[in-house]
Amino acid sequence: MKPEEAIEELNHELLILECLIEEVNSFICDCDVDDDEYDDEKEQCEISLTRYKKEKEVIEMAISALKEIQQYREIGTVEECREAVEKQKPKAPKDSLKIKPVIDENGAYVDADVTVYLLCPNCGEMVGIDENVDKFCHECGQAIDENLEGREDGA
Ligand SMILES: [Zn+2]
User: Fold this and answer.
1) How many domains does the chain contain in total?
2) Burial degree of 21 (CB within 10 A; 0-12, 13-18, 19+)
3) pLDDT in tens, 71-126
4) Cα 95 to ligand 1 centroid, rounded to whole Å
5) Exposure pattern of 71-81 as b/e (b: 16+ CB <10 Å)?
6) pLDDT value at position 134?
7) C-alpha to C-alpha distance for 54 and 47, rounded to whole angstroms
8) Distance in Å, CA 124 to ligand 1 centroid
9) How far is the CA of 155 from the centre of ligand 1 (A)?
10) What is the pLDDT, as a whole number, of residue 18?
11) Which of 39, 118, 120, 152 is most exposed, with minimal Cβ within 10 Å?
Protein backbone atom coordinates (compact mmCIF):
# COMPACT_ATOMS: atom_id res chain seq x y z
CA MET A 1 0.00 0.00 0.00
CA LYS A 2 1.26 3.44 -0.92
CA PRO A 3 1.28 6.27 1.67
CA GLU A 4 -1.38 8.20 -0.27
CA GLU A 5 -3.68 5.15 -0.16
CA ALA A 6 -3.16 4.78 3.58
CA ILE A 7 -3.86 8.49 4.05
CA GLU A 8 -7.11 8.13 2.11
CA GLU A 9 -8.19 5.21 4.31
CA LEU A 10 -7.28 7.08 7.47
CA ASN A 11 -9.11 10.21 6.32
CA HIS A 12 -12.20 8.03 5.88
CA GLU A 13 -11.80 6.68 9.41
CA LEU A 14 -11.35 10.21 10.66
CA LEU A 15 -14.64 11.26 9.07
CA ILE A 16 -16.47 8.38 10.77
CA LEU A 17 -14.93 9.28 14.12
CA GLU A 18 -15.89 12.93 13.73
CA CYS A 19 -19.49 11.87 13.09
CA LEU A 20 -19.44 9.62 16.15
CA ILE A 21 -17.98 12.38 18.31
CA GLU A 22 -20.65 14.80 17.16
CA GLU A 23 -23.39 12.26 17.81
CA VAL A 24 -22.17 11.42 21.30
CA ASN A 25 -21.66 15.11 22.05
CA SER A 26 -25.21 16.00 21.12
CA PHE A 27 -26.50 13.08 23.18
CA ILE A 28 -24.59 14.32 26.22
CA CYS A 29 -26.02 17.81 25.68
CA ASP A 30 -29.51 16.40 25.54
CA CYS A 31 -28.90 14.68 28.86
CA ASP A 32 -27.93 17.89 30.58
CA VAL A 33 -31.30 18.17 32.25
CA ASP A 34 -31.12 16.85 35.78
CA ASP A 35 -32.59 13.51 35.08
CA ASP A 36 -31.31 10.56 37.08
CA GLU A 37 -32.28 7.85 34.63
CA TYR A 38 -29.96 9.31 32.01
CA ASP A 39 -26.93 9.39 34.29
CA ASP A 40 -25.63 5.89 33.47
CA GLU A 41 -26.01 6.40 29.78
CA LYS A 42 -24.39 9.80 29.98
CA GLU A 43 -21.41 8.32 31.79
CA GLN A 44 -21.04 5.65 29.09
CA CYS A 45 -21.19 8.35 26.45
CA GLU A 46 -18.51 10.36 28.13
CA ILE A 47 -16.25 7.31 28.27
CA SER A 48 -16.91 6.70 24.56
CA LEU A 49 -16.28 10.34 23.77
CA THR A 50 -12.90 10.24 25.48
CA ARG A 51 -12.00 7.12 23.52
CA TYR A 52 -13.14 8.55 20.20
CA LYS A 53 -11.17 11.75 20.77
CA LYS A 54 -8.08 9.72 21.53
CA GLU A 55 -8.55 7.60 18.41
CA LYS A 56 -8.99 10.77 16.38
CA GLU A 57 -5.71 12.09 17.76
CA VAL A 58 -3.94 8.83 16.87
CA ILE A 59 -5.29 8.89 13.32
CA GLU A 60 -4.35 12.54 12.83
CA MET A 61 -0.86 11.72 14.01
CA ALA A 62 -0.62 8.77 11.62
CA ILE A 63 -1.79 10.95 8.74
CA SER A 64 0.80 13.63 9.41
CA ALA A 65 3.52 10.97 9.76
CA LEU A 66 2.52 9.49 6.41
CA LYS A 67 2.55 12.93 4.82
CA GLU A 68 6.05 13.42 6.13
CA ILE A 69 7.09 10.12 4.54
CA GLN A 70 5.61 11.31 1.25
CA GLN A 71 7.68 14.50 1.43
CA TYR A 72 10.86 12.54 2.12
CA ARG A 73 10.13 10.29 -0.85
CA GLU A 74 9.79 13.35 -3.03
CA ILE A 75 13.16 14.64 -1.84
CA GLY A 76 14.76 11.30 -2.55
CA THR A 77 16.26 8.36 -0.79
CA VAL A 78 19.10 8.66 1.71
CA GLU A 79 21.48 7.29 -0.92
CA GLU A 80 20.34 9.86 -3.46
CA CYS A 81 20.92 12.64 -0.92
CA ARG A 82 24.37 11.31 -0.09
CA GLU A 83 25.19 11.14 -3.78
CA ALA A 84 24.06 14.74 -4.27
CA VAL A 85 26.25 15.87 -1.36
CA GLU A 86 29.21 14.01 -2.83
CA LYS A 87 28.72 15.82 -6.13
CA GLN A 88 28.96 19.18 -4.37
CA LYS A 89 32.59 18.48 -3.50
CA PRO A 90 34.77 19.60 -6.41
CA LYS A 91 36.78 16.81 -7.93
CA ALA A 92 39.65 17.15 -10.35
CA PRO A 93 38.65 16.31 -13.91
CA LYS A 94 40.21 13.34 -15.60
CA ASP A 95 42.14 14.24 -18.70
CA SER A 96 42.36 12.59 -21.98
CA LEU A 97 44.90 13.60 -24.57
CA LYS A 98 44.05 13.85 -28.20
CA ILE A 99 47.10 14.03 -30.38
CA LYS A 100 46.65 15.15 -33.95
CA PRO A 101 49.71 15.16 -36.16
CA VAL A 102 50.31 18.38 -38.05
CA ILE A 103 51.25 17.71 -41.64
CA ASP A 104 52.61 20.43 -43.94
CA GLU A 105 51.60 20.94 -47.59
CA ASN A 106 54.26 18.45 -48.71
CA GLY A 107 52.83 15.77 -46.50
CA ALA A 108 55.69 15.88 -44.05
CA TYR A 109 55.15 15.49 -40.35
CA VAL A 110 55.76 18.82 -38.64
CA ASP A 111 54.42 18.68 -35.17
CA ALA A 112 51.81 17.07 -32.96
CA ASP A 113 48.79 19.12 -32.02
CA VAL A 114 47.93 18.09 -28.51
CA THR A 115 44.52 18.85 -27.09
CA VAL A 116 43.67 18.00 -23.51
CA TYR A 117 40.08 16.96 -23.06
CA LEU A 118 38.94 17.28 -19.48
CA LEU A 119 36.41 14.68 -18.47
CA CYS A 120 34.00 14.48 -15.55
CA PRO A 121 35.51 12.14 -12.90
CA ASN A 122 32.04 10.84 -12.18
CA CYS A 123 30.43 10.13 -15.54
CA GLY A 124 33.15 10.76 -18.10
CA GLU A 125 31.32 13.53 -19.90
CA MET A 126 33.55 16.28 -21.35
CA VAL A 127 33.77 19.23 -18.97
CA GLY A 128 36.51 21.26 -20.64
CA ILE A 129 39.27 21.58 -23.16
CA ASP A 130 42.85 22.45 -22.19
CA GLU A 131 42.69 25.05 -19.40
CA ASN A 132 39.03 25.94 -19.83
CA VAL A 133 36.99 23.86 -17.47
CA ASP A 134 33.33 24.08 -16.44
CA LYS A 135 32.37 24.51 -12.80
CA PHE A 136 29.87 21.68 -12.97
CA CYS A 137 29.36 18.71 -15.20
CA HIS A 138 26.30 19.48 -17.32
CA GLU A 139 25.50 15.78 -17.48
CA CYS A 140 25.54 14.59 -13.87
CA GLY A 141 26.06 17.81 -11.85
CA GLN A 142 29.42 16.82 -10.41
CA ALA A 143 31.34 19.87 -9.14
CA ILE A 144 34.64 20.15 -10.98
CA ASP A 145 37.82 21.45 -9.40
CA GLU A 146 38.81 24.38 -11.60
CA ASN A 147 42.19 24.80 -10.04
CA LEU A 148 44.30 22.85 -12.48
CA GLU A 149 47.59 24.39 -11.28
CA GLY A 150 48.40 21.94 -8.54
CA ARG A 151 47.40 18.99 -10.63
CA GLU A 152 50.01 16.36 -11.32
CA ASP A 153 50.98 16.07 -14.93
CA GLY A 154 49.57 13.05 -16.62
CA ALA A 155 47.19 12.37 -13.73
ZN1 LIG B 1 29.46 14.10 -14.96
Assistant:
1) 2
2) middle
3) 887 777 778 888 888 899 999 999 888 888 888 888 888 888 888 999 999 999 99
4) 13
5) eeeeeeeeeee
6) 93
7) 11
8) 6
9) 18
10) 95
11) 152
